[in-house]
Amino acid sequence: xxxxxxxxxxxxxxxxxxxxxxxxxxxxxxxxxxxxxxxxxxxxxxxxxxxxxxxxxxxxxxxxxxxxxxxxxxxxxxxxxxxxxxxxxxxxxxxxxxxxxxxxxxxxxxxxxxx
Amino acid sequence: xxxxxxxxxxxxxxxxxxxxxxxxxxxxxxxxxxxxxxxxxxxxxxxxxxxxxxxxxxxxxxxxxxxxxxxxxxxxxxxxxxxxxxxxxxxxxxxxxxxxxxxxxxxxxxxx
Lengths: 115, 112
What we know:
The structure holds two protein chains of two kinds.
Chain A: E1 5-7, E2 10-13, E3 19-24, E4 31-37, E5 43-50, E6 65-69, E7 75-79, E8 88-95, E9 105-106, E10 110-114
Parallel strand pairs in A: 2-10
Antiparallel strand pairs in A: 1-3, 3-7, 4-5, 4-8, 6-7, 8-9, 8-10
Chain B: E1 5-7, E2 10-14, E3 19-24, E4 29-37, E5 44-49, E6 55-58, E7 61-65, E8 71-76, E9 85-93, E10 101-102, E11 106-111
Parallel strand pairs in B: 2-11
Antiparallel strand pairs in B: 1-3, 3-8, 4-5, 4-9, 6-7, 7-8, 9-10, 9-11
């Protein structure tokens, strides 16, 4: 596709349920990032993938959060046993490489609401 | 992680006015970036700065990488209604990896 695609755009779930968020990066982009944006806040780094290297998981807030990426394509962010504080917009971004000079392209995000 | 202090949190201005916002940090940054986020969308890169003292323009936008490498500002001249949105600074700090640290954003409202 032309840009980074995320699905679903909105997700409402009950506390304690698991959710899976999907990101389709721009074709050819080797680097993929997940960020969390709470209401009125900046972007909080969660995890990033670069090619076949081990992902940088240093931003994941708890072991309820995990992410996978198949090669240089789709990534899924999974939140287990969701809590109300997990409510936020989850943004995915991709870039041509890991170098910071490469422009990051963001998706429109998944708005997660945990009731 | 390293913190970026962005100010002001929000601004309400009249169309045609100039706007200035800034970011500061207690740590040295190698790169400063400015993004704009429209409602329901992801952030879009406006300006990237890579060297201390660098001053870069993009249309009505001007941004500078502070000499101390601990701050950056963004100016918008002659604001127009479509400038409305949230502006984020972001940076890569000297002691970190490639991941970006973001400020909390400046919400800009432009009254016609």
